[in-house]
Amino acid sequence: MAERNIAIVVGSLRADSLNRKLAHELARLAPAGLSFSFVEIGALPLYNQDLDGSPPQAWEDFRAAIRPADAVLFVTPEYNRSIPGVLKNAVDVGSRPYGHSVWAKKPGAIVTVSPGAMGGFGANHHLRQSCVFLDMPIMPQPEAYLGHMGDKFGEDGRLNDEKLAGFMTSFMAAFGDWVEKILRGPGELA
């Protein structure tokens, strides 16, 4: 299997974000053959089509970070039953100018993390809906809506729940398989 470069996009800007902690754990629990880079979204100016002719450098840097990735892993909280505005802005910046999306054809997966009970179900599905339009094949199973995450990390930032760590390990193995399946294309043998 070829080494696959995965861009991780975290939808939370909070310094002690549960989502960022989990994203680091997902990279650690991933199978061999996947390498990860975190692509930051907090400094992106709001998308404005008037700027497409002379885009802000932050937009160009973001697009340049996503473009070479083989796949994308989104890890995000849910805000008001949807995705955070900063993540929606990143999705929009990467999708423009029209016809030059950096997202197209990249396999992806979505993990939503919440200290509450619902685990970000709404955000997960809103992001999936956007990814359909972006022509991103998103891993259908297993789904990951992780609730009650406030006490799932130790002082070192690592998962302290063995059952959850096992699920995340299997999720990342499935993601590795998904990336290979999509990048090989239909009709290719494993």
- The name of the CATH architecture is 3-Layer(aba) Sandwich
Helix-strand category:
alpha/beta
Q: How confident overall, as mean pLDDT? A: 95
Strand content: 5-15%
According to CATH, the fold-level topology is Rossmann fold
Distance between the termini: 9 Å
User: How large is the count of helical segments?
Assistant: 5
Net shape: globular
* Strands, total number: 5
CATH top level is Alpha Beta
Biggest sheet details: 5 strands, parallel
Assembly state = single chain
Describe this structure in words.
The protein has 190 residues and is an alpha/beta fold. The chain has a single domain (4-42, 58-184), classed as Flavodoxin domain (Rossmann fold, 3-Layer(aba) Sandwich). 36% of the residues lie in helices and 14% in strands. The protein has a five-stranded parallel β-sheet with strand order 2-1-3-4-5, with helices on both faces. Helix 1 (18-29) packs across helix 5. The longest helix is centred in the last third of the chain and has 23 residues, at 162-184. The radius of gyration is 16 Å and the shape is globular. The termini are close together. The relative contact order is 0.18. The mean pLDDT is 95.
Which helices and strands, and how do they pair?
Blueprint (H helix, E strand, L loop, with lengths): L3 E7 L7 H12 L4 E5 L18 H10 L4 E6 L8 H11 L12 E6 L7 H13 L10 E3 L15 H23 L6
Parallel strand pairs: 1-2, 1-3, 3-4, 4-5
